Fold each of these.
Amino acid sequence: MSGFVDVLVIVAVAVLVIARQFRTHAIDAERRWWLAPAILVVVALREPGILDAHHRIESLGLLAAEVVVGLATGAGWAWTTRIWRASDGTVWSRSTRASALVWVGGIALRAGLFGLGYAIGVRQDSAALMLGLAATLLVRGGITAWRARLLASSPGPAPTYGGGTPTAPAAPAARPARKERV
């Protein structure tokens, strides 16, 4: 794919995922949460220019930093997502304002990495962004699924992040939650 198309795909996936996470939705901890990140990794690794041929060490360092930022963003996003169990046993989640701050911080760090690469003359491809996004989604999905399984198997009310009460209402009355799909 061309660089412009890659960037459009990355932006579309990020907007879709972020928008979905800020709505209340049921979590199915047994779903294939790792599938979308795996597809992004395969697409990114198929790109021929993942490393700058003239600056291999520097581009590898920037790529590693991009993945680390992605991992940290995914972990921060997962731990700031509010997860609760409704009275019927369904596990629900919704990202919080803190989750939005994690995303803003992650985007700022990624922009800084691309600026650093530009300053030292390293040509970076969109594959680095795809790998960072894959790392974010993989860690976020794994931690969220793990938290949902723990909450679903616990016998009584469990504390949540971002909620005043352990068991909050299942979903807003005005908008029914849709089933989450990959």
Amino acid sequence: MKDNFNLKKTILYECHIKLKAKMTPYSGFLMPLQYTSSLKEHMSVRNSVGIFDVSHMGKFLLKGKESQKLLQYLTTNDISKITYGQAQYSCFVNHLGGIIDDLIIYKISEVEFLLIVNASNIEKNKKWIYKNIKNKENLKFLDLSQRDSILSIQGPNSLKSIQKFTNISLDKIPFYHFVIGKFAGVDEVLISRTGYTGSKGFELYIHNKYAENIWNEILKIKTNSFKVIPCGIASRDSLRLEMGYRLYGQDISESITPIEAGLSWITKLEKKFIAREILKEQKKEGKYKKFLSFVIEEKGKIPRKGFLLKDKNNFVVGNVTSGSFSPILKKGIGLGYLNDSEKNSYFVSIRGKNIPIRIVKLPFVKI
């Protein structure tokens, strides 16, 4: 395989090569697509446990007495509603209400926040934050993206897999909460009860110099009933799609508002933030393209990004933004947008044939 010198690598790149991972360009990085098969890795996470290297994600630290005030203004969710040791899913929006990025915010203290952003948007997010910092004396912004790694251990056996590495009672960490403590002999590891798969799991935020050793130690875990296997971005994508999690650059972008994207639940219109009035008006009027999730009952038909959605009269009424085969449902599933607000029968165009779709509520799979 020819190396691409324009692509970044995580600190675990050589580990992936030794494991014979198939590498692929992703968000400006060379990342493992799969190690064995995406289906095997997907099912391991749903039924047992798998580990992902997600160190490509952006990691920002915002410190200072003005930090919460700034985040409250820049993000759509209400950061004042969470306390220390809690995480929150939110998004940055521009002045027109378009989604600059979706992110997870970890509240370390009243004046310190860790922001996890998409790898492809690291520089854009940095510029946006700097642009909106009014009083630099009361704020300190650090980009830790190249310093720290993130390991994601996902699946019903995730807790059993890593509990022996720490004295922290991992079963006591609620969903979307975290603890900072010792893990595998390393101090100040942030252990978070989060993930992008929908299955039970944990994410570890660690300094790069400890990442390889911890990755290898976790991969040694093997019992009579399960073992930890490495998983790539192909299975991560199919896992997130079964839950209906949006993917930036496909399902959400600066041309889509959180109202349109079905993310009203993280859009707190009662608080003041950028573009609040625009989003408030959009929601009130109801005149916007509608996010939808659907299943294809016909066997062997899989929707893909860019496929057209049509009505019963063969008019194009929308498009698919994400689509795949669900290993759990054993059916094609997809996300997309409709420009047609009428109640109607819809189809997805696959190789010139209109295939009926059934609109369903998310998640596709209940874990």
Amino acid sequence: MSLRHALLGLLSERPASGYDLLKSFDTALADVWPATQSQIYTELSKLADAGLISVTAEGPRGRKEYTLTRAGLGELQHWLTETKPQRNTRSDVLLRVFFLGVLTPEQARGYLTGLIEMSEQTSEQLRGLDDAIDWGGDRLSVYGRIALEYGLRFNAMRRDWAEWAVGQLP
């Protein structure tokens, strides 16, 4: 997945300014695909140059509203249907677990306990995000809630696994 496709996906729902898109990345997409302001505005320029979005309104202080073009929708649909998702093959978390044997059991337990705490904190943040978003019946809300549920379930699984792993230590 790329920032390009995340922006195209957001714009498929409705036209938006860079600021509006940044707010979506800070809330609805925060746990899925984080992006900074500079990354978003740089990618918006690239998308406009490629003809995948267009500027449909300009306001005060250089505010621009972007709209998905027919070519942009085609690119998004192609990515969704013709491009296989990349399996995340690297995990800093699990690589560290693999080598916990070089630490004392107490240090290894501390690392795993940290994963439990991280999972609980992330779940708490996601629940707060769920409460803060005004979910509607639009497509982005429906599928956004489904993605948020994935995050909640993933963190619950990681917490359960880390608790199990602590029990495996000497």
Amino acid sequence: MQPFELKKDIYWVGCVDYDHRDFHGYSRSPEGTTYNAYVIRDEKNVLMDTVSPGCAGTLLCRLGKIMEPEKIDYIVCNHLELDHAGSLAQIVERCKPEKIFCSTLGLKSLQGYFNTKDWPVVAVKSGDKLEIGKRSIIFQETRMLHWPDSMVSYIPEDKLLISNDAFGQNIASSWRYADEHDEGDLLRAIKEYFYNIILPYSPQVLATLPIVEKLDIDMIAPDHGLIHRGEKSVRFILDMYRKLAEQKPQQRAVIFYDTMWHSTEKMAYAACSGLEEAGVPARLMSVKNNHHSQIMTELADCGAVLAGSPTHNNTVLPLVAAQLTYMKGLRPKNRVGGAFGSFGWSGESAKYIHEQLESMGMEMPAAPVKCNWAPGHEALKACHDLGKAVGEALKRKCQEG
């Protein structure tokens, strides 16, 4: 359990959880995740964030290689969600810090999760500066990235931004730096993290980026995943966040669907052929075989969303309903949509899906397509035409920017 020195007297003392699979209610690749915590050794020794429940021993072990835990003077809680603060009570009991710093809204989280009556808690706001010796820490609130209590901590003397949830990924690795990891896998993990957690707060991302870019930074250390070091890596993640937050339409489509007796599945393939004829590549994703987070991640590269389901009890199949609900909560913007579905008796599914996609603000260039029983040539051609109409609408949208 060795600490890792990022800069002189600044150490990573976090925990790598290789077996974690369900994170914030969504799954990821089987890499697990990382709970990053950091120690600054100075005239006042500072622990920046803690770790998830059950991981306190690992943090204390790494910390013990640097100093006795009781020598920690301050604890900074950039965000009080339990993957960062689940071990806080144990750490406070062991370290007995002089002060615990959190944002003004963090006070509510602290009181809600812990018995803080006897804790030496100090609330800070944007621009507040904490002198710790040779270094200082400047706090910047980043409300709704992704909780109201979130903030980041900037150490100007080391050009270091400790960014909490912003700029992170779910990657479990023995490497600490992003430039040591496979580039394609890193990019996928960034998109997955953004599109399943940060996406609803894209306006806040775009408002925060100019503030961050004014700072002199050569390292961004998030609380999950790998650390960005050097001008190239820092610029990469800032540019990536801007691109993801802007949600400019891209000429690619995703089709998600469920099927009972393969009729809706055949309709999905027909819609895909229409997209291809329009010059829009597409990916088909069965909701039975793809987790809702995987489908959501696909939207990072897709400007069009088509969805299909058989009618079941006068509505859609449960996994399609869940996917639509999950997607709606994440508030994707600037998309084109399409809906289709088969039915035996009542036929409400396609209309329901159309209305759900439309309620997300998607442009709906064609009426929903529904098919009674098994699709024949006419129904499949209608699905093909639906895909083509969506593809052509998307191409126009991309040209408009």
